[in-house]
Amino acid sequence: MLGKLSCLSRSSWYWLGLIILGLSMEGIALFFQYGLNYGPCVLCIHVRIWVMALTAVAILGFFARKAPWGAKLSHLLMLVVSLGLTERSWQTLAVERGWVIDSCSMNSGLPNWFALDQWFPQVFEPWEPCGYTPELLFGITMAEGLMLISILLLGVSILFSALKFRSK
């Protein structure tokens, strides 16, 4: 079983799947923003940045998967991205459910050297204050869906990182 999982972690299909997942998530977010007029909040913008990082790491993993150092680096970076995405997803869900009171401002909080909201406002500019996310399917909100995806991704990242660092 561990051998099959280890083989999957080296597979181009794994990394292609992550690229498709990241691009799909960004596409869905942009559809909700421009097609259905649900503007993003600051937390949503932070999630988009983590999803962009997920896609970038998956591209790196796809090209570096055969080199031992490249595979280890890619899996380690995917673990970091998964942690960041899970934290922002939890924060988004917690604000939506009222578990935390957050005074989200309209300022993205990004430093000047990484001002994605100014460089690419069509994708990274907050439009609304935090508070709720739209419903996706079957009564599941976007925050709930993000939490589910990020927890699954974190679990897979932990497993594959452990397998990668366990092997020689």
Describe the protein's topology.
Blueprint: H1 2-10, H2 12-35, H3 42-64, H4 68-97, H5 116-119, H6 121-124, H7 142-166
Helix pairs in contact: 2-3, 3-4, 4-7
End-to-end CA span: 18 Å
Number of separate helices: 7
Number of strands: 0
Apparent shape: globular
Low-confidence stretches: none
Radius of gyration: 17 Å
In short:
The protein is an all-alpha fold and 168 residues long.
Give a verbal description of the structure.
There is one protein chain. The protein is mostly helical and 168 residues long. The chain has helices at residues 2-10, 12-35, 42-64, 68-97, 116-119, 121-124, 142-166. It is 71% helix and 0% strand. Helix 4 packs antiparallel against helix 7 (142-166). The longest helix has 30 residues, at 68-97.
Fill in the keyword field for this structure.
0% strand, globular, 71% helix, 7 helices, mainly alpha, single chain, 168 residues
